[in-house]
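Narrative of accomplishments. A recurring question from our advisory board has been how the design workflow behaves on a single, concrete structure rather than in aggregate. To address it, we present the structure tokens for one chain from the evaluation set, followed by the sequence designed for it. No filtering or post-editing was applied between the two.
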């Protein structure tokens, strides 16, 4: 996220938002409390996944989720997003730093960042939700890849979570536009079996796709200390839950791209897919989020990510945990089959296991704020 405090960045932000009057920054650099602030949500091209075409959509979903949580936290402190303008980010794989559109935000703009949208914030002296409660929920929200309690989830909770969502903060900033996301829970045994069957048959694709696996594997860290030092990525504990040291050692060898290259010939990727399918089958529910549009605009995609974060926070508040199973969305043939089998209302962009955790999962590492929020 870029926080526009310099003259060039504020000028570019106001121009993109169609404002005529540019107020000069104050001596301290940024606006006084009665002035507007401008944030630029951006995609970090150095850290994005690019090995599958579907990753382009996933990265924007992820940006939208980040934007939602940040904007909600600001709204809880009286800073409301009241205008937004989406910008098409440079295509994945484009050589870094050669897009002059990125330079409009001035010299401090990180060369690897592709702007996604510009947001105006206005101080309104009214808080939308309790900041402490939001912080606690955001901290409690972790992807939980372990087994879930087998008991059914209270239908009243699922009904509450089923309301169409639009990602509150970004949506508020774009009145008149309504890229609502449909929430569909998959609860019946037969339907969960359909999802598990797709995972079992196709879930090995990522493991057997050399480039995709190499890229995913580059985010697996050797230890807590390694993840802590780099500030991102996953330890084996975050991916598989607590493992005894000999099992950790075995998994490390089995997951290495060189081993995977060999083991896929004896169907190891299918074994991993069947393990994931068994987890899906034994979870009490799954959830699918869908766009109405088969070819969503950048605005719909980013708002979809915001809606996903909104859903995930609400589920966390209800005591539920999630574990996305994106492999059945990443290939159009499989996604089509999923949508048909479940009769989904539109294009599915997020599918996840849903349930009550049996074991707590550790939080994943995050980059320091100084690397994710830049003054430009
Ligand atoms: C759109 C999207 C799809 C994802 N798909 C998967 C997935 O299929 N499998 C998985 O293990 N993690 C997946 N993740 C990553 C995790 O859910 C999670 O965001 C990441 O591991 C960070 O951990 P945290 O949720 O505990 O903060 C996905 C994330 C996003 C945003």
């Amino acid at each position: 996220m870029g926080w526009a405090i310099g003259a060039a960045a504020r000028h570019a932000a106001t121009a993109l938002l169609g404002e005529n009057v540019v107020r000069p920054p104050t001596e301290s650099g940024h606006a006084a409390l009665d002035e507007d602030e401008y944030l630029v949500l951006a995609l970090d091209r150095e850290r994005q996944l690019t090995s599958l075409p579907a990753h382009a959509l996933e990265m924007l979903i992820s940006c939208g989720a980040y934007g939602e949580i940040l904007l909600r936290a600001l709204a809880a402190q009286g800073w409301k997003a009241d205008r937004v303008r989406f910008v098409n980010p440079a295509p994945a794989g484009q050589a870094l730093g050669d897009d002059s559109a990125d330079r409009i935000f001035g010299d401090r703009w990180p060369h690897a960042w592709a702007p996604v949208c510009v947001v105006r914030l206005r101080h309104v002296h009214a808080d939308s939700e309790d900041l402490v409660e939001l912080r606690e929920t955001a901290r409690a929200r972790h992807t939980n890849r372990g087994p879930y309690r087998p008991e059914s989830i209270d239908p009243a909770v699922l009904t509450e979570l089923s309301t169409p969502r639009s990602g509150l903060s970004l949506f508020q900033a774009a009145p008149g536009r309504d890229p609502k996301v449909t929430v569909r829970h998959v609860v019946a045994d037969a339907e969960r079996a359909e999802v598990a069957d797709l995972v079992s048959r196709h879930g090995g694709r990522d493991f057997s796709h050399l480039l995709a696996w190499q890229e995913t594997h580059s985010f697996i860290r050797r230890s807590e200390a390694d993840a802590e030092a780099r500030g991102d990525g996953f330890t084996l504990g975050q991916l598989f839950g607590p493992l005894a040291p000999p099992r950790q050692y075995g998994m490390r060898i089995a997951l290495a791209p060189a081993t995977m290259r060999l083991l896929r010939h004896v169907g190891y990727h299918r074994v991993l897919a069947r393990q994931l399918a068994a987890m899906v089958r034994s979870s009490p529910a799954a959830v699918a989020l869908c766009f109405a549009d088969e070819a969503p605009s950048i605005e719909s995609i980013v708002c979809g990510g915001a809606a996903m974060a909104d859903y995930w926070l609400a589920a966390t508040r209800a005591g539920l945990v999630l574990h996305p199973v994106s492999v059945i969305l990443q290939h159009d043939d499989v996604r089509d089959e999923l949508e048909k089998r479940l009769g989904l209302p539109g294009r599915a962009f997020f599918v996840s296991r849903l349930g009550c955790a049996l074991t707590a999962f550790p939080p994943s590492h995050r980059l320091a704020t100084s690397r994710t929020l830049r003054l430009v």
